[in-house]
Design a protein that fits this description.
elongated, 40% helix, alpha/beta, D-Maltodextrin-Binding Protein, domain 2, 16 helices, five-stranded mixed sheet, 4 domains, 362 residues, 434 Repressor (Amino-terminal Domain), single chain
C-alpha cells in the first residue's frame, strides 16, 4: 500500500509542478523524506497527508486511497460545485460573444459582465463569480492579447473549454434600411472580418472597443444611418434589427474559450480524451526548447498548440504556452513531462479538462 501511496504523491507533486525539494519545503520535511515516501519506504503521517494535499491541490482522501475510494467523493464534490454555481463572469458588455458563449455553455448560470479580463479573473478569485468564460484564441485573429500573461500568475484553474462560432450580424435600429446606411461601428477585428459587406454597401468603418458596445451605442443614438456589426444576442438585448446575417467574409470563424474555476477539477483518465494546458520556461542551454519538447515526440504525445510570449515580470525572458492531448497520469505524458522538467526552470500546469467535441469535428 505504501508503494501505491508513494506513486500518488509523486503524481500529485508533478501535477502541481513541484520538485521533491519544493514539496519538502512546503510540507516541512527533508527531500530525503519525500523521496522515501515516493519510493514506498514508508507513508506520511495524517498531518503530512493534509500538508501534501494543500501543497499539491489534491484531497487527502485521494492521496490515501486513490480513485477507488476517493474518486466517487471527489466527483460528488465537483458535481456539487457545478450544481451550486450561480454566476459566470465574462469580459465585455452584455451581448458580447463571450456573453453568448456563457448562455450556450452554461444556460442556468447568471452571466456577470466585467470591464477587463483582470476584472473577470478577480471576480472568480474573490468569490463574486463561480466560473469565468475567457477567450484564448480565434481561428482568424490568432491569440487573444493579454490572456497568456494573466494565466500563469492566476490562482484559477482551467476546468473546461468551449468553441464559440462567431456569426456576425449587421444590426440597426428598427425601421432602418440597408440603402440608407452610411457608417458601421464595431471592434477592429469584426470590421476586418466583414470587409466585403462594408465595401459592397460603401460604408464608413468606425472602430469601437467591442462589438456589443457598438450595438449599445447605435441603439442609444437611434440614428437610422448607423449600423453595428455584432452578435444576434446584442440585437436581442438592445432592441435592434438584423438587416443581414452571416456577413463575415469567411465562414468557420471560431473562438476557443476556456472556463476558469477556483476549484481544480480533472477528468477521470478513463472518461475519454483530455487536454492538458501548461506554461514553462526553458533553461539557458543550447537547443533547450528542442530538447524540452523532444519527450513529447518520442512518447507519441500530440502538441495541439505551442506559443511563445515575453514576460515583462521576468525581464524579457521568453516563456511558452502549450496544449497537449492527454492526461498527466498517462504513462506517455508522464515520461514527456519528465523530460520537459529536466530542461525547464519553471513549469506550471494550468488545467486538465475534457476535450471539446469540436476538436473531433474540425
Amino acid at each position: 500500500m505504501s508503494r501505491e501511496i508513494g506513486e500518488r504523491i509523486r503524481r500529485a507533486r508533478k501535477g502541481a509542478s513541484l520538485s521533491q525539494a519544493g514539496l519538502a519545503e512546503a510540507v516541512g520535511v527533508t527531500q530525503a523524506t519525500v523521496s522515501a515516501w515516493e519510493s514506498g519506504g514508508h507513508g506520511p503521517s495524517n498531518e503530512h497527508f493534509e500538508a501534501i494535499a494543500r501543497a499539491c491541490a489534491r484531497s487527502p482522501g485521494w492521496l490515501a486511497f486513490g480513485d477507488r475510494e476517493a474518486g466517487s467523493a471527489r466527483r460528488e464534490e465537483i458535481s456539487a460545485m457545478k450544481r451550486d454555481a450561480r454566476t459566470i463572469a465574462f469580459q465585455g458588455v452584455p451581448g458580447a460573444y463571450s456573453h453568448l458563449a456563457c448562455r450556450i455553455a452554461f444556460p442556468d448560470l447568471e452571466p456577470m459582465a466585467c470591464r477587463t479580463f483582470e476584472d473577470a479573473f478577480a471576480a472568480v478569485e474573490e468569490g463574486r463569480a463561480d466560473l469565468a468564460m475567457i477567450p484564448i484564441e480565434n481561428s482568424l485573429g490568432g491569440r487573444v492579447a493579454d490572456i497568456h500573461h494573466l494565466l500563469p500568475d492566476s490562482s484559477l484553474y482551467i476546468v473546461d473549454e468551449h468553441f464559440q462560432p462567431v456569426q456576425h450580424h449587421l444590426l440597426a435600429v428598427p425601421g432602418a434600411k440597408l440603402e440608407g446606411l452610411k457608417s458601421v461601428l464595431s471592434h477592429e477585428q469584426a470590421l476586418a472580418q466583414c470587409r466585403g459587406l462594408i465595401r459592397e454597401l460603401k460604408l464608413d468603418a468606425v472602430i469601437r472597443a467591442d462589438t456589443a458596445g457598438a450595438a449599445a451605442e447605435i441603439a442609444e443614438h437611434g440614428a437610422p444611418d448607423q449600423a453595428a456589426i455584432a452578435s444576434e444576442l446584442a440585437a436581442e438585448i438592445y432592441g435592434l434589427t438584423s438587416l443581414r446575417t452571416r456577413i463575415e467574409d469567411r465562414l468557420g470563424n471560431t473562438t476557443r474559450m476556456v472556463v476558469m474555476s477556483r476549484i481544480r477539477e480533472e477528468p477521470d483518465p478513463k472518461d475519454g480524451n483530455a487536454i492538458t494546458s501548461l506554461v514553462f520556461q526553458v533553461r539557458s542551454v543550447p537547443a533547450a526548447l528542442y530538447k524540452a519538447l523532444g519527450g513529447f515526440a518520442t512518447n507519441g504525445v500530440n502538441i495541439t498548440r505551442l506559443e511563445s510570449y515575453i514576460s515583462e515580470a521576468m525581464s524579457g525572458i521568453a516563456q511558452f504556452y502549450i496544449d497537449i492531448e492527454g492526461h498527466p497520469s498517462d504513462k506517455a505524458v508522464d515520461h514527456a513531462f519528465n523530460e520537459l522538467h529536466f530542461y525547464s526552470t519553471k513549469m506550471k500546469i494550468l488545467g486538465v479538462y475534457k476535450a471539446h467535441p469540436f476538436r473531433s469535428e474540425a
